[in-house]
Write a structure and sequence with these properties.
Elements (H helix, E strand, L loop, with lengths): L11 E8 L10 H18 L2 E7 L3 E8 L4 H20 L11 E5 L1 H13 L1 H4 L14 H6 L7 H5 L6 H13 L13 E2 L3 E2 L2 H10 L12 H12 L3 H4 L6 H16 L4 H7 L5 H10 L3 H19 L1
Parallel strand pairs: 4-6
Antiparallel strand pairs: 1-3, 1-4, 2-3, 5-6
Helix pairs in contact: 1-2, 9-11, 9-14, 11-13, 11-14
Length: 311
Amino acid sequence: MARPPRIEFQGAFYHIITRGNQLQTIFYDDHDREKYLELIEKYKERHGFKLYAYTLMTNHVHLLIETPKSPISKIMQAINFTYTNYFNRRHNKVGHLFQGRYKAYLCDKDNYLLSLIRYIHLNPIRARLAESPFKYKWSSHRDYLKGSKSIVETDKVLRLFSEKPSQARQLYKRFVDMAIGIKGDGSIYNVHNQQILGDDTFIEKIERSVEILHKPFNRPALKKILLSVSKVTGVAQDEIMSRSRNGRVMQARHVLVGACREVGYKLVDLQSQLIKRELSVLSRWCSASENKDKYRLVQQVFKQLNARLQA
């Protein structure tokens, strides 16, 4: 069965699961894990997302993310792409590190926030990597108990238990510990259409919210994206496709590659169908599109595409 396009909009709340390619190990040691968390912090600041929980396993990662600004595809592309480059350099590897498509379950935050946090923090226990969640170093469970500043939005969650910090931490710990050794809550596996976790009311709300936003994810033709990039940047299409090294032209190319990647095209697609450049060059342009100013232009390209699709 074909996989549906990602549902992305401002304020979306996701349970992310990203796995190693063919279940390979993605963290060889603590240095690797620390690097991955550094990248989460770096891109959290850049893209303004909120992180509610994480667990780093041997061959996969669980993240609980809310996206007030940037789409989840942009966030995960940045984290995984940068980490893969680091990992391959450090361990003398080549090729893909992560499985082709990470799982991004769009969740009803009001009804599933706490159960998902507990599920994620108990993942190492179910895998028998630790006897208790507190003894597992590479999850955000300790952040909820320490009360110190971290990359996780602990305050917002703990207030759901009590306005008094010390009491909130005790109640949170009890909430997590009471589920140790008990079969997981099956409701978090009841996913609609391979990607939505919520009841019928939530699903209807999401469908109304993304009715317009969904249209760009029908993958507009590459030439249509090129046309929109030309209009947004003011750089002629033939200039974008030329060998010019002019600053404005280079910026337009970065925006073009970023927009194409956003809607699901692979770099090899661009190389074979649109831009005759080495994949290493296209990869650099893709990274360059993460610049705040250029990413703002990418969003303008999407608005341009939306307008044309609705006309």
